[in-house]
């Protein structure tokens, strides 16, 4: 038994308004968290943060440039994810009109055993 190869590319998914709203909110949150994590560790407020005073034994880690760089890297990753979601959302808005997800009868194939 051989698997059947499809003739055409998969039909792109069209999102409804509430899916788009959820994706849009995810993009906004992801971008804001990313911008915060990228910039805030390098500001003067970082050293006077209440979290640094809450755990004095972690003070050296908190003020380490490596730790700040790791947080900035996570921030850049969040920004990258949000931009990827923007492109995915824009691509899903284009293409074919919505279908029921069932291919037309002439495109159906039945595998034989």
Name the poorly predicted regions: none
- The whole-number mean of residue pLDDT values reads 81
In what range is the share of β-strand residues?
under 5%
Number of helices: 4
Can you walk through the features of this model?
The protein is mainly alpha-helical and 113 residues long. The chain has a domain at 17-94. It contains 4 helices and no strands. Helix 1 packs antiparallel against helix 4 (65-93). It starts with 16 loop residues before the first helix and ends in a 20-residue tail after the last helix.
How are the secondary structure elements laid out?
Layout: H1 17-39, H2 50-54, H3 59-62, H4 65-93
Helix pairs in contact: 1-4
Quickly list its features.
113 residues, mainly alpha, 4 helices, 54% helix
In short:
The protein is mainly alpha-helical.
